Amino acid sequence: MTGLLLATGVVWAWTVAGAQGPGAPSAVRYTEVVEREVRRGVRLPGSVVSRASSLVAAEVDGLVERLAAREGDTVRRGDPLVVLRKTNLELRLRRAQGQIKEARARLDLAESNFERNSDLRASGVISEREFDDAFSELNAWQGRIDTLTAEIEQVEVDLERCVIRAPFDGAVVQERTDVGQWISVGDPVADVVALDRLEVRVDVAERYFPSLRPGVRAAVSFESMRGVAIEGEVIAIIPRADPQARTFPVKIRIPNEDRSIGVGMLAQVDLPLGDPRRATLVPKDAIVAQGPRRIVYRINGDDTVETVDVEVGRGMGSWTVVEGALEAGARVVTRGNERLQPGQAVQGSSLEYPLP
User: Fold this and answer.
1) What span, in angstroms and rounded, lies between the C-alpha atoms of 118 and 322?
2) CA distance linking residue 178 with residue 173, whole number of Å
3) Which of 33, 109, 298, 343 is the most exposed place for a label (fewest CB within 10 A)?
4) pLDDT in tens, 274-297
5) Beta-bridge partner residues of 38
6) How far is residue 144's CA from residue 109's CA, in Å, rounded to a whole number?
């Protein structure tokens, strides 16, 4: 009985081994080759700067009474940054308002005298000189009212300027004054930067300058954000090189709605160069290194694989540009390619990658 069981086990094991032997197709995943318009590119380090950065200054002399916004505070356009003491200006305003009331009363009297003297002049009762004096008195008080009106308007403007406000939405990054300090016209009170209008500045070598194009999209990543990449746009190519480094500044606008990016952060920019061209792309997972060679396994119509030598170019997310005997729509192995041999039969299922 023991011998019979052993013999049966040997037959069963041989049968299973035969079913999974060398002739059985290998299970793999494949992805179709695509074609896209791409540009050659270069990766460069850059630094985040704000498109709007202001050293906010005082427009009137005064004593700092309150700091309405401190370092690190976010502000909206028009929000108070610094408040100056208004006491002296309020006294000037009250004095001018009192003086203009007196001037208006005297103007009314001068108008009455002028009208009366006009009638007396027509009757020949008063001389021409007395009439001219009445007319001059009327003009003098009118001029006095005009002067006081301008003074009141100026004091009201200065009172408004005692509240120094944010020029745009942003954040206070440095305080330049403190409570109790006397400041004069033009003295700085705070540094404000806009966080929703950021740029990355990169310095591009002279040899790449002819290939730069405004308006192209560039991938920007930050090491401090675990390599998260965002899409930016080249908005400015400064056509003047640094005299020592011979590099040209390029500015890439980036979004920052959630304000997760700070001014001064270091970035890596994949900057496209030249005009677009049609290129063949395969997933990076399809590339197999064999010493100096780079190959992909292509699935033929009879579900066998063959190797295709490729030259690997620029990466685009999960994909990479390749040059070789591949056409759009060809199926290349992206899972299970590490154990394949040319001519081996495979059983493949599709695996999709997000397109670049």
Assistant:
1) 101
2) 15
3) 343
4) 888 889 999 999 999 999 999 999
5) 277
6) 14
**Structure-block tokens of residue 86:** 């208004």
Query: Do residues 195 and 171 make contact, with C-beta atoms less than 8 angstroms apart?
Result: yes
Q: How many residues does the chain have?
A: 356
**Separation CA 140–CA 330 (nearest Å):** 96
Closest CA to 29 of 279, 302, 324, 340: 340
Burial (0-12, 13-18, 19+ Cβ within 10 Å), 75: buried
Q: Which position has the token pair 């074609």?
A: 35
The encoded tokens of residue 220 equal 């920007």
343: region left, alpha or beta (phi > 0 left; psi from -120 to 50 alpha)? left
Two structure tokens written together for 223:
């090491």
Q: Could you tell me the domains of the chain?
A: 25-36+278-350 (2.40.420.20), 42-51+195-276 (2.40.30.170), 60-84+163-193 (2.40.50.100), 87-161 (1.10.287)
Question: Of the candidates 192, 162, 172, which has an alpha carbon nearest to the alpha carbon of residue 59?
Answer: 162
Tell me if residue 29 falls in helix, strand or coil.
strand
Q: Tally Cβ neighbours within 10 Å of residue 186.
A: 9
Angstrom CA distances, 336 to 124, 285, 288, 290, 299, stand at: 122, 10, 11, 15, 12
**Among the residues of the chain, which ranges form H helices?**
2-19, 87-123, 128-161
Collect all residues with Cβ–Cβ distance below 8 Å to 305 and sequence separation of at least 6. Answer: 297, 298, 299, 333, 340, 342, 343, 344, 346
Mean pLDDT along residues 325-346: 94
Distance CA 326, CA 343 (A): 17
Predicted confidence (pLDDT) per residue in 7-55, tens digit: 334 333 333 333 344 568 999 999 999 999 887 788 899 999 998 899 9
The pLDDT tens digits for 65-113 are 999 999 999 999 999 999 999 999 999 999 999 999 999 998 989 888 8
